[in-house]
Design goal:
single chain; mainly beta; Jelly Rolls; Immunoglobulin-like; eight-stranded antiparallel β-sheet
């Protein structure tokens, strides 16, 4: 599951150790949907076993692997991965690889006397400090114990996926003509590394912790990728590509699913903004090519929450809010919990729209923050006109002192319509009747 692969000798040298230099690749057009899962837990060392049947076809890669999925923004400096892969163009070989910072990796293409695409076979990885061993149907097939293996130091998750590569010299030319395809998994097991005190694996150095035979879907153990992809891969991973039936896990590769758009309501609260009477707010994102002006927001009830409902196609979308086109932007603080892609330089919110989703209403977010602002006010209750922490008769007096104000920040403008008048007085009185001074604003 390398992020990008070069071609060359990797696909044609059997029984040899080949160094893979992994470089940047332009992201291809996504021409297929497929499935990917990962354990929710990461593991440092252990024995990892699977019984599986791979998919045949040019350009197709089936996998069982360990990957530092929690690398975050530290890729490739903390890149670690251990692979079992089968390319669909070869029916008598397996690919065993370790990956390191750089990024680069070492692969052994191992000949076998069976087709991994024709039936179920058992594969295992034993990862111990400074050594990785691969097993096929209970027999050792390959060992890496060179000094470079000391670089496998990060906990990794167990992962499986089925994908289409743009490296024709390695896996054959991808055309998509053979779709649909599927990879099947009968079980996956994990045994903890317990040297000298185990019950399974080489020298009984491992202790079995769990085995999943896929009689049912274990949500607590496995997470399903939703519209994830990576460079050099023609597929997007979607939940519809993952299923469990007849005691097996199935990862299915299909043509992209034609799905209806989903109404998504965007909301931004503006209590911290000094808005003038002619100011307009907009939502801009990948769905409108960030064009500035095509998706204006509206605040029809003057409560300070500006909204817009946009029909979006299923997938991953980034967006932010802007004032008067691009004169000012209100995006996610860079590197914050709501920064959708925290490893890039852009301050964007984001969401994933599932296939066949119900309408999505996003919570109001305070301008340029991650904070939800259901009242539309980013600081305090607007009925607390004198800002003393409660709604009392003193606020009525403060409002009357501000009566007739026409500006974007009138102190008595409870309903945020840029005017202090009878509507504000009525709203304040309703709030006063509903709250005691000790309760403040509810």
């Amino acid at each position: 599951m390398a992020r990008a692969r070069t071609g060359g000798d990797v696909g044609v040298v059997a029984g040899a150790c080949v160094m893979l230099i992994l470089g940047a690749s332009s992201a291809p057009g996504q021409e297929c949907y497929s499935g990917e899962i990962a354990t929710r837990e990461a593991f440092l060392h252990g024995r990892f076993e699977v019984r599986m049947q791979s998919a045949a076809g040019d350009g197709v890669v089936s996998s069982f692997f360990l990957y530092n999925l929690d690398v975050g923004c530290n890729w490739p400096a903390e890149n670690n991965e251990i692979d079992v892969e089968m390319t669909g163009n070869r029916d008598r070989s397996l690919h065993f690889t370790t990956h390191y910072p750089g990024p680069f990796g070492y692969t052994r293409i191992v000949p076998v006397d069976f087709s991994p695409h024709a039936g179920l076979h058992t594969y295992a990885i034993e990862w111990t400090p400074g050594r990785v061993q691969w097993f096929v149907d209970g027999m050792i097939a390959y060992t890496q114990d060179e000094p470079i293996v000391q670089g496998l130091i990060h906990p990794m998750r167990i992962m499986m996926n089925l994908w289409a590569t743009d490296a024709p010299d390695w896996a054959g030319p991808w055309t998509g003509e053979m779709l649909p395809l599927a990879t099947h998994y009968e079980y996956v097991s994990y045994a903890r590394y317990t040297p000298g005190a185990g019950d399974t694996g080489s020298n009984d150095d491992f202790t079995l912790e769990w085995s999943d035979s896929f009689d049912r879907w274990d949500h607590d153990r496995w997470a399903v990728s939703s519209f994830r992809g990576f460079g050099g891969n023609f597929c997007r991973f979607v939940p519809q590509g993952v299923s469990v039936s007849a005691g097996k896990l199935h990862l299915a590769m299909t043509e992209p699913i034609v799905a209806e758009t989903v109404p998504v309501t965007f909301q931004v609260a503006t209590g911290t903004l000094d808005l003038g009477p002619t100011d307009r707010l907009y939502v801009n994102g990948s769905f409108n090519d960030w064009n500035g002006w095509s998706l204006p927001l509206d605040d029809p009830d003057g409560d300070g929450v500006w909204t817009r409902t946009v029909p979006l196609e299923p997938g991953r979308h980034e967006y932010l809010f802007t004032r008067n086109g691009w004169s000012e932007s209100g995006g996610a603080p860079i590197g914050s919990v709501c920064d959708f892609a925290p490893c890039d330089a852009w301050a964007n919110y984001g969401l994933v729209v599932p296939i066949d989703s119900d309408p999505i209403i996003l919570s109001p977010v305070c301008w340029a923050t991650c904070d939800e602002c259901p009242s539309g006010v980013a600081t305090s209750c607007m009925a607390d006109v004198n800002d003393d922490g409660g709604v009392t008769a003193a606020d009525v007096a403060a409002l009357m002192a501000d009566y007739g104000c026409e500006a974007s920040l009138c102190a008595g403008d409870v309903d945020r319509d840029r005017h202090t008048g009878p509507a504000d007085r009525q709203r304040l009185l309703r709030q006063l009747l509903a709250s005691s001074p000790a309760e403040g604003c509810s």
